[in-house]
User: Fold these one by one.
Assistant:
Number 1:
Amino acid sequence: MNPKFSDEFEKQLYFLSRKVGRAIREYSMVQEGDRILIAVSGGKDSLCLLRVMSWRLKYSPVKYDLVAAHVRGNSLGPTQGLSDSLRCWIEDLGIALHERDIVLPIGEPLPMNCERCTRNRRRTLFEMAAELGCNKVAFGHNLEDFAHTALMNLLSSARLQTMAFMRSYFGGKITVIRPLAYVREHDLIRLANAGQIPTQENPCPLVSESKRAAARRIMQLLSKDFSHAADNIVRAAKSNPPIGE
């Protein structure tokens, strides 16, 4: 029997939290006393992750701390940060928000391609996590993101591999977790709409031209005839070692 809910947002939180809980349990993503940095881009995925992880704190027997972090930057270099409304929304959750310009190696040519941009953004987040005493970094990649990554690798290198659900770096000092691994994008859209979460668009000029965008278009075409295409691609990719990141 499903519990009764006071509103649609609470209902969506509950059901999305169950999918997040599945990933957390299967991979032991969260341990007692963890200090978790949530990488906030401003998009619906990372904000829904932040909201669900804060909601789970009320009911989970495992206690952990949350910190939100935003890297200001894209393929062109440093950019403006989050909107004032989004900052206020995060603060209302009782979660500290930290923002920093993307840290680029000396001589890094601009614009960066997606791979270099991702690498530099992740490096910046790892530096922030270390400074803030966080042992976990959580990314908001959803199930379709895992499928897109698998498609990209299959088409470009003939290997059906995707991202790791969880991976440790620097001798275990920092562990990356992806609690939305079993969450479909439409679930996140419903939660964001029901909660009126103040998302902001990705300002990167290359977002529609990337290989990931191409994989997304292919997946949309496949899903019209094969409704479980994303689930099955991820299931198949999980039988192989994850990609190196």
Number 2:
Amino acid sequence: MPKAGGLPTDYKLQEQDIFLLDYSVVLHGYRSDFTNAYAVGEPTSDQQKVFDICHACLKAGAAYLKAGISASSVYETVTQPMLDAGYPALGHHAGHGIGLGHPESPILVPESTDTLLAGDVVTLEPGMYIEGIGGVRLEHNYLITDSGFEQLSHHEISLN
């Protein structure tokens, strides 16, 4: 099973491997959290398909964000494109709050009782990890507003 995270090894990336870059910037004590998946060389059609599904999950979740919705319903919205494509739901949260800590409430999981509030800063980070294809996880940061959200991160989401 593809891994996301762990200790360094001597493994050298090879053509058609996918690697995740997950990083945080801290400014005046406030945190951010970004992730993208990158292919070494040209991605296979299966890798591109998994990437496209994850990207659809990210976009679906963002379109749903606004104050007053439940964290569990955000999880359901983020994972729906995976389920529609015949894949299982996430094996981890669909995102989390960030601020002075990392992670913070709300945690976007099915069992959460949290509600998103105007002023919350959250990440969405759908991920799929498939044996023989690789792991893809994408992440942006959002400020929750009464009418929706303001996207705070603007890095390119692309496999290349």
Number 3:
Amino acid sequence: NNHSVTVGKQNHLHVVEHLFSALSGLNLYDVRIDVYGNEIPFFDGSSQDFARSLEELDYDRGRSLHMTRSVEVVAEEGIISYSPL
């Protein structure tokens, strides 16, 4: 049984739910995400590592949140970088 979420029509990206959960929980929208590979790092199976990394960013914490700098998260099996639009 595969319980992971996959997005994309031609190029698929797997295991996005923990990243999306962290972004949503921090009310981060309009974020460009560069992923190298076809899967988001899994870490411990929760959004905690993503949320912790995102909370370290300097972003406008008004009603609409916008990132002001890029960040990269590296795990054994993948790399993901977040960039402001």
Number 4:
Amino acid sequence: MKRHTVKLLLLAVVAALSGCHQNPSHPENDGSIKEVVWPSPKRAKLGTGLGVFPTPESISLLNNGMTKDQVYILIGSPHFDEGLFRVREWDYLLHFRTSGYGTHGVTTCQLKIIYNSDLLV
């Protein structure tokens, strides 16, 4: 009986962790993707899906070859539940003040950062 319980517990842990590795756009090893899959803005994990107002300078500093830590320092953690292990895409909900454009002078954009198999942008 004890052995059976351990096997069931192990199976439950494996099943739970399988949801911790999500890459909906299915990046190739080189970081390329065939089809971009965008999450619904309503799923942003910032409480109400409000997103953030980054500085244009921080966005302009994003570049190929950056590590996850470097991206995190520039624009913070991803705004959607991406998973826990070997996640190779981060999604952000960004707002920019655009006087005279957008809703109430604010334009909303989504940004997707794709990492290659070495976990570099």
